[in-house]
Design brief:
Layout lengths: L1 E3 L4 E4 L9 H11 L2 E5 L9 H13 L3 E5 L4 H11 L6 E4 L2 E4 L1 H9 L2 H13 L18 H9 L7 E3 L1 H7 L5 E4 L3 H6 L6 E2 L5 H7 L6 E4 L3 H13 L5 E4 L2 H9 L6
Helix pairs in contact: 1-3, 2-4, 4-10
């Protein structure tokens, strides 16, 4: 009925549920996997950039998911829009509930809500009957966009970690620096000449930033900066960095504040 690929996905057989009407087939797919993605292509070969970005994000979340290739079935391709009241693909379902499309998925990932949503759903319901016990082992996250970049010679494989020493050597003036700390953290220790943005503002910000410019994300700890950098890479930006050790690491090594 399904096949496991080299990533975290299970590809649903397009003939599954043949003979049932579209709503019943859709519900069957959604009930089969706690995380269900309706995409163009497959997890290992997405056929559009939006589908590739969603697969990339769910590989980073690290829980097995299932995909249905809408290009294999015009009936599902058309019927899924009415079923979800959502006009485009990909379409994301978690725990039996419709979440949204690419932009919403990326936004939720950037602010940490997607991982929480998926983990809570899997804890409550398991992975779903489409997944075998062997699929519960968590492989290392992979970036499909990164592999595409390697193949074409464009872009970066991953968001790059930048140490305080390397940043000082390269010069802060060569980066667009974005502070993604929480409001209360910025209020306690404001940075001059640095652009501030919440994690929820990254989707809009990605359209404003020049794709060929160096972008550096800073936060108190590097984990938040990495999450923001990953988001921007998934949106097609190529020169994206995050500060190793965050601002805490910078202060500890340099003994002075980071000033834009």
């Amino acid at each position: 009925m399904q096949s496991h690929n080299a990533l975290l996905g299970v590809t649903v057989d397009p003939t599954s549920g043949a003979g049932l009407d579209v709503p019943k087939r859709m519900q069957r797919f959604i009930n089969g996997s706690t995380v269900m993605l309706f995409i163009k292509g497959t997890a290992d070969q997405p056929m559009c950039g939006f589908s590739a970005r969603v697969i990339d994000v769910f590989n980073r979340v690290g829980k097995p998911y299932a995909t249905f290739n809408i290009l294999d079935d015009p009936e599902i391709r058309n019927g899924a829009k009415e079923f979800s009241s959502w006009p485009t693909f990909p379409q994301i379902y978690v725990g039996g509930e419709f979440v949204g499309g690419c932009d919403i998925g990326l936004e939720l990932y950037a602010n940490g809500e997607l991982e929480t949503l998926v983990n809570e759903a899997v804890d409550a319901k398991g992975l779903g009957p489409l997944h075998s016990e062997a699929a519960t082992e968590k492989p290392a996250p992979r970036s499909l966009l990164s592999e595409k970049s390697k193949a074409t010679g464009e872009g970066l494989a991953e968001a790059r970690e930048l140490s305080p020493a390397k940043l000082e050597l390269l010069g802060l003036e060569n980066f667009i620096v974005i502070d993604v700390r929480a409001d209360e953290e910025r209020a306690a220790n404001a940075l001059q000449g640095v652009r501030a943005a919440s994690m929820g503002e990254l989707a809009a910000l990605s359209h404003e930033l020049p794709a060929d410019h160096n972008v550096l994300f800073v936060a108190e700890e590097s984990k938040r900066g990495l999450r923001a950098a990953d988001f921007l890479v998934a949106r097609g930006h190529r020169h994206v960095f995050y500060l190793k050790g965050g601002l805490e690491g910078w202060t500890a090594q340099k003994g002075k504040p980071l000033v834009g």
